[in-house]
Amino acid sequence: MAMTAKQRKLLILGAALLAFGAVKFGLIYYWYLHNRQPAAPAAQALSCDIERGACALPGGGALRFSARPSHGQPFEIRLDGVAADAAPTADFTMPDMDMGFNRYTFVRDGEGWKARVILPMCVSGSRDWRVEVKAGKTAYLLPFSVR
User: Fold this and answer.
1) Distance (Å, rounded) from C-alpha 95 to C-alpha 118?
2) CB 46 within 8 A of CB 63
3) What is the pTM of this model?
4) Of 52, 40, 84, 63, which Cα lies nearest the Cα of 131?
5) DSSP string covering 31-54, please?
6) Do residues 89 and 104 lie in contact, with contact meaning Cβ atoms separated by under 8 Å?
7) What's the domain of life for this entry (predicted)?
């Protein structure tokens, strides 16, 4: 049985689409293998009471809250005794709750760093937060509660 011209065109089109898909897959796979970023080191967990003063950092230095955080009220966090080439950052998250993007960048303040923070209100009423502070290649994770 002979193929019609229309069938031949469809066959060529199908083969071209398959070839295009294979080339695209190969290029994406090549890019993925050669452009993967090394995994960031896990954050070091801190366990301290933010109301009792500064939290000592394992590598030296301290993390301090100016006051006990409250939803919707500005407060300041300080990072002292930490050397960093770039400004450190603080990412605030809630366990099991998407609270949006809450990243603050520290600014130089004398010998240390400070950031002014305002945490959003959680509609569920949860008061548990975590802050991940990144300074250079080091990261610290501190759970805390707001009033």
Assistant:
1) 18
2) yes
3) 0.70
4) 63
5) HHHHSPPPPPPPPEE----GGGSP
6) yes
7) Bacteria
What pLDDT tens digit does each residue of the chain (147 aa) get? 688 989 999 999 999 999 999 999 999 998 888 887 766 678 899 988 888 888 999 888 999 999 888 888 999 999 999 888 889 999 999 988 888 889 999 999 988 999 999 998 888 888 899 999 999 888 999 999 887
- 10's enclosing H/E stretch is helix 5-34
d(CA 28, CA 52): 52
The residue written with tokens 């004398």 in the block is 110
Q: Euclidean distance between the first and final Cα of the chain, in Å?
A: 81
How far is it, in rounded angstroms, from Cα 144 to Cα 113? 20
Distance between CA atoms of residues 55 and 50, nearest Å:
7
